[in-house]
Amino acid sequence: MKLHVSVPFTALFLVACSSSPKQEPASPATPAAEPAASADPVAAQIEQGKELYVAKCAKCHGDAGQGTKDGPPVVGKDAFPLDPRPGAKRDVQFHTAADVFAWATKTMPGDDPASLTTEQYLAIFAFDLTANGVKLTAPLDGAAAQAIVLHP
Ligand code: HEC
Q1: CB 105 within 8 A of CB 121
Q2: The model's pTM
């Protein structure tokens, strides 16, 4: 059986190129991206906490945690006193960072209590504790906060 294969006629317009095809110089091999510095999980948590602090806490507690007329300091020697300040709503003592955490996650931000996730509160406290001179060697979690004694 004979096969009639019809070949579609394709007009090829060969455009003469006046310049010779560009010879790209062999590009030097791009080195694989270095792992970012923020691969450090502690630094990443602190960075996240800083952004959240600025967005959610700074308007009452101050840009540097120094306190404002709307909220007490959360950084520096006057931060986190053992006993509630005169006239405060707080009704617990702050012995450890976990005590501060437990109270603040239920009551803060003052204008929208308990509105963040546990991870977000942990990040904010990682940032805040770092600002208070606490050196974190691993991302902050509940057990680590329990071990940070503010007032024995
Ligand atoms: C609308 C203002 C406001 C915002 C926003 C706010 N706070 Fe507060 N915060 C206060 C006030 C007022 C107090 C004092 C409460 C009391 O009477 O015990 C306080 C107390 C605290 C305390 C206890 C300090 C102490 O000395 O007793 C912590 C910790 C705290 N806030 C953390 C936070 C964090 C973290 C955020 C952001 C997620 C935040 N706050 C956002 C107003 C605010």
Answers
A1: yes
A2: 0.81
